[in-house]
## 1
Amino acid sequence: MTHLDWGLAGKTVIVTGATGAIGRAVAAGFAEAGATVAIVDLDQARCDMTALSLGLEHRGYGADLRRFSDLPGLLARIEADLGLATVLVNIAGVILRTADLFSVTEKEWDAQHDINLKALFFLTQAFAKRLAETGTPGSVINYSSQGALSGGFGGSVVYNATKGAITTMTRGMARSWAPLNIRVNAVAPGLVDTPMLKTPGQSDADREAMIQQIPMQRLGLPEDHVGATVFLASDMARYMAGAMINVSGGFLMY
Ligand SMILES: NC(=O)c1ccc[n+]([C@@H]2O[C@H](COP(=O)([O-])OP(=O)(O)OC[C@H]3O[C@@H](n4cnc5c(N)ncnc54)[C@H](O)[C@@H]3O)[C@@H](O)[C@H]2O)c1
């Protein structure tokens, strides 16, 4: 390889949450790098449309990732259609904001943990198991958040706790599977201009106040996350394991 060889051409890459704002941008980045992309998200029709918009070689897989026992079957379908995937990008996630921390219900706790953390764990476990069985090197990129470090505030604390756990789990998975040549790393977005950032009743002044906290003086865009994600999956990051790349315009610095 040369120093500028991404090594992704012809690889099969799975992106979850791939019809969402960041997921779609990231999936397009992998397609541009020459990979074949499995577009995984809740709605089959939206997955098909997204896949088609990237090119005929990509495929959509409508799946609710909270059906944990279906996850090995989902991976088997992708392998049968597109070949063994060697890159998994875990982007699917939800935030359920509540008025404050006092009002969080058990249902809201479970809903966020089920997709953000439990689905991520069991999908990645099944993915890594298949790589281990076949002796194939691979890469996992988990979507965390700046909130993993800050803790978030009020009604977003539970969501941010899932992100903290993702960061911790990224390190544990990386340490466990690096000897198998399966690299696990994370990307941590900051304040990204997507529907997920919107809170009920948010005013223009609230939005401006958020921007003022960002040294680069603008909210993140979905496309801002493509470089870090494709890089982590690529041969250019071949000696990286357990890292978390900060993509926040300087919102937090670490
Ligand atoms: N937007 C931000 O400001 C921000 C900040 C930090 C981290 N993040 C993280 O980045 C990731 C993407 O965020 P986004 O802003 O693009 O959000 P988004 O809501 O546009 O995308 C999330 C996607 O996940 C999918 N999804 C949810 N539950 C699912 C399930 N059970 N099975 C399959 N798919 C499911 C949704 O359908 C959606 O397409 C998330 O993990 C989020 O936590 C976002």
## 2
Amino acid sequence: MTLTPQPSDKFTFGLWTVGNPGRDPFGEPTRKALEPTYTVEKLAALGAYGVSLHDNDLVPLGASLGERGRIVADFKGALDNTGLSVTMATTNLFTDPVFKDGAFTSADARVRAFALQKTMQAMDLGAELGAPTYVFWGGREGAEVDAGGNTVDALAHFREALNFLCEYSQSQGYGFRFALEPKPNEPRGDLYLPTVGSALGFISTLEKPEHFGVNPEFAHDTMAGLSFPHALAQAIDAGKLFHVDLNDQKPGRFDQDLRFGAENLKGAFFTVKLLEDSGYSGPRHFDAHALRTEDEAGVWDFAEGCMKTYLILKKKARQFNEDREIQELIAAYKVRDERLEGLSKTFSRENAEQLKDTRFDLEALRSRGPGLERLDQLTVELLMGVR
Ligand SMILES: [Mn+2]
């Protein structure tokens, strides 16, 4: 298996990721902005499959129709020349100060209506570029203070907006699959729908939940001290993994968006293993950026690093699945009992009665060691390359 990325690996990057100029709340940009057409050429040369974009990553806010047409035509030309696809589109509903107190969830009806207008225009752009998936990351959908009494209203407004936009997509024949991207905080003090679980719960309240899934992000769960592989597993279990944002993060920090695998190698390994084992066929999308210290060469090192680490971990996941000792330990860990599994799988009065009459050897259950120390050490050795 080669460690050189191929389009068939389905690696994708947001224009805003490699295009991140290194601005932070305390400092000015450290790099020049990259032209979208140049970004497409560079990513294609590195073996990427596609790009994703916010409306304003490509078309600046306030551009005339003529300017928009020229920019989109140039961009399409770069896509055609390189064979790259646009795999996901989204709306920037966070940079403009108009969204300082929310977009879809703003307490101001005029802001909510403008957010719908801007999103419909961004969906038109995404459809024109052939994006199959549309992501909603509510960057400003949250609050610092709850004194305005908007917390319940905000969810109702959010629901109305998503229902409206789903109908818009269908009436236009766009057929987008929508993915909600949860995040606990930043840039707002507290964001609504902070976790994968809250997004999944919210989706079930929408008019057409079948068109909505989630776009979990490694850094977002990690910021809150949660396990990303567990969040990912819940999305897979619900059949709602529509897209995924890969990066890395130290827990308890600001949103670092580090290179995939840069910090938590075990978390990255189990993320890749889950994606590969589950049969997820969507883009492996990197939503991260190079360190602010870097120049443009560092940006491409960052992009290459994300993909290479994924491929190494994919190889390791295969090795894990083929490692006889590891698989024997897993088989021993997952204790089977045909009779009890038969009784507990589905309820019947008879099964319930038999279960109530069953005597369990609790001393044996209490004293049994499941062998996780050995199994985890073998995993670590495998990741360190000595297995
Ligand atoms: Mn993201």
